[in-house]
Amino acid sequence: IFMFLGISAVNPFIWTWNTAFVLLTLVFISVYRAIGVVLQTWLLNRYRMVQLEPIDQVVLSYGGLRGAVAFALVVLLDGDKVKEKNLFVSTTIIVVFFTVIFQGLTIKPLVQWLKVKRSEHREPRLNEKLHGRAFDHILSAIEDISGQIGHNYLRDKWSHFDRKFLSRVLMRRSAQKSRDRILNVFHELNLKDAISYVAEGERRGSLAFIRSPSTDNMVNVDFS
To answer: What reaction gets catalysed by this protein (predicted)?
Structure first.
């Protein structure tokens, strides 16, 4: 859709300009989005434990629509029945440019200025991965024994189907190997050992202990 939109944006035969119509469209989509966000968050806050604050609503309202669906709908209009189709198409392209370029470039400074609390993404520790996977298997086994089909059962079956069939058909061998959990755990354990060796070397003031045969921490390292 966006490729088609880009081609249409440089097509001089579809452009019909009406400044008042374009500006009012930009105003109304912003106003009605804000009204929609406020009404829906008011309903959601009645059932949410963590409330959506006014700052969150401002960010949601400012997010705007990107216009791919709107553009797909407007180009499907019948030109014989809708005489101003080109005006609608041109205005929709302007809306897409406005929401993608202007709002897209200014949303980050707005979030920083409003001091919106953002989620922190971090890689789970090896211990967390192992325990999480173990609990998944345990819950799946309990559901299997009890005869209940729940989220864990379905996820485990889908993972098995993906691992046995989909991955072998759609992924290269090297990519399949990179997804292997045992190899990932082995890699992380090796990485953890390497970090501990380097930390020990820094504590002693050098890494000479790695080559020294007189220490218990000797490892076979190829320095070439």
So the answer is: Na(+)(in) + H(+)(out) = Na(+)(out) + H(+)(in)
Give the span between the Cα atoms of 70 and 76, in whole angstroms.
10
Which pTM was predicted?
0.50
The closest alpha carbon to 70, from 5, 17, 3, belongs to: 5
User: Which amino acid, residue 211?
Assistant: R
Of 168, 159, 191, 9, nearest to 93 by C-alpha is: 9
Mind spelling out the 3-state secondary structure of the chain? Answer: CHHHHHHHHCCCCCCCCCHHHHHHHHHHHHHHHHHHHHHHHHHHHCCCCCCCCHHHHHHHHHHCCCCHHHHHHHHCCCCCCCCCHHHHHHHHHHHHHHHHHHHHHHHHHHHHHHCCCCCCCCCCCHHHHHHHHHHHHHHHHHHHHHCCCCHHHHHHHHHHHHHHHHHHHHCCHHHHHHHCHHHHHHHHHHHHHHHHHHHHHHHHCCCHHHCCCCCCCCCCCCCC
> 29-50: b or e for each residue (b if 16 or more CB lie within 10 Å)?
bbeebeeebeeebeeeeeeeee
Long-range contacts formed by 188-197: CB under 8 A, 24+ apart: 188/126, 189/126, 192/126
Averages of pLDDT over runs of 10 residues in the chain (224 residues) are 77 86 92 92 88 86 80 87 89 88 86 79 75 78 73 75 84 70 71 80 63 51 52
Contact between residue 73 and residue 2 where contact means Cβ atoms under 8 Å apart: no
Structure tokens belonging to residue 53: 């604050």
Q: How many whole angstroms separate alpha carbon 177 and alpha carbon 159? A: 16
